[in-house]
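Our consortium's second objective concerns turning raw sequence data into structural hypotheses that experimental partners can test. To show how far this objective has progressed, the report includes one record in full. It was chosen at random from the queue rather than selected for favorable results. The single chain below, 406 residues long, was entered without modification.
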Amino acid sequence: MDVEIRPARDSEMAGFKQVAKRSLLIPPEIAPPEAIDTIRPEWTLCAFENGALATSYAWWPLKMRFNGTSCPVAGITYVSTNPVCRRRGYLRRIIAKHFEMMHEKGQQAIAALHPSRAAIYHRYGYAVVSTQQSYSLEPRQLVFTRPENVRNDLGNLREAGANEEDVFKDLYRRFCQDRTGYIHRGKATWAAGVLAPPLGNEALFKIVYEENGEPLGYVLYTARTRRRSGGELQHQLIIRDFIWLTPRACHALWRYFSGMDLANEIKWMHVPPDDPLPHLINEPRQLHISSRDGLMARIVDLAPALTGRRYDAEGKICFELIDELCPWNRGRWTLEAGAGEAELRQAKQEPEIILPVDTLAMLLFGQISPSRAGAMGRLEIALPGTLPVWDRLFPTRHRPFCPDFF
């Protein structure tokens, strides 16, 4: 059987789309069908079996916030194999070749994705580096424990006009400045994501909170009405994006929803794990919080990945990294961080810790602490007493999170 791993050509993009759409079945509210049309052939790497496309694979060149700085990442997308060609190892060959390309080109040090199934990607050194929550609540449950903080005489809410996208873009940029996992939203990301036209009978609303004319927060949501099996109408409000720069802005935007007496349900499917709402209302259990795995990431090029994020403490650590798929990452390394900069060098001394590449990704994003990783058995402590230094180095200012599906 003749198998070739290479990018798709212009003339083969129709076949690429067919394979991706057939197997993935991505709901349009998560990824609009037209989004695949913006994939360029040079962003693909596919398996061709006897000349026919068997496995699709692509990436977006993205920039991701990384604890106060920005890091280029490859946002993996449209990974799918024609059902008649599965279990032949094509995806492993594609991923190995893509990682080699990333290492050689030096443009992105990290690969990230939202998996259909996490188990598929654990075998390639990916780790779950963020947690995603969701809310489902009735507006009447938005009763605050400290009503005095929910003042309405200091600012005002208004509906944004049709040409105020720059207001959202500026607030989003300021909100995620010190966060980890948020991506830079280009024009296409905004248009195909939180500002995409509503579906069917939905309506899109854009609400801005401001004080003295200065925007300090916004919420984008859709409203839709559905008829239940008994004939009763159900009114749903579905939050797409919720951004706030001050506690008052957060309170005011939620108070806006508390007055939606005709709404049966407010749903927010992409909630940061450190969102403050559960700590602000009388009955947090009425949020019906659910939690699931979010972003997965893979360290492809160790040095730029570790030195590309900001560290808020000083320290020097030595470790041995285990990486089966990227041999250039293997070995003993010393990381020295301080004054906002970090340097990675190969080391000859005995390591303090021995760990696999997926555990290191979890530490790098701040998903878990080194001490927790040790307690879970996700790393081996070779030098007792070293974990406090590691724990000081790796925390991020906010819990890692990515609200955008790519």
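The partners drew two points from this record. The chain has a mean pLDDT of 93. The chain has ten helices and 20 strands. Both points have been shared with the crystallography group to help prioritize constructs.
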